[in-house]
């Protein structure tokens, strides 16, 4: 199982307000990348979050793509 790909997507954008996850402009979403595991995704997420720390409305997220691709976790699609 050590070679299993647990894909994670890192993306972000500017929120309309701080109360909900609703982006101001979907055309300006920043797709950082897809990573083979959570540790790599978290490293990329931290780097992007640090770069935008002065903008309170800018948020980055990690999406567990492997859970979307295999929701029951049995390794079959």
Could you give the topology of this structure?
Elements: E1 8-14, E2 30-35, H1 38-51, E3 58-64, H2 65-69
Question: Short description, anyone?
Answer:
The chain is α+β, with helices and mostly antiparallel strands and 77 residues long. It is 25% helix and 26% strand. The model has no long low-confidence stretch (mean pLDDT 91).
> Strands of the biggest beta sheet: in what spatial order?
2-1-3
Number of strands: 3
- Give, in order, the helices and strands: EEHEH
- Give the distance, in angstroms, between the N- and C-terminal Cα atoms: 17 Å
Q: What quaternary form is this?
A: single chain
- Overall shape: it is elongated
| Alpha-beta content class | alpha+beta
The percent of residues in helical segments reads: 10-25%
What Rg is obtained from the alpha carbons, in whole angstroms?
14 Å
What composes the largest sheet? 3 strands, antiparallel
What is the mean pLDDT?
Answer: 91
| SS field, number of helical segments | 2
What does this structure look like?
With 77 residues, the chain is an alpha+beta fold. 25% of the residues lie in helices and 26% in strands. It has helices spanning 38-51, 65-69, and strands at 8-14, 30-35, 58-64. It has a 3-stranded antiparallel beta sheet. The longest helix is centred in the middle third of the chain and has 14 residues, at 38-51.
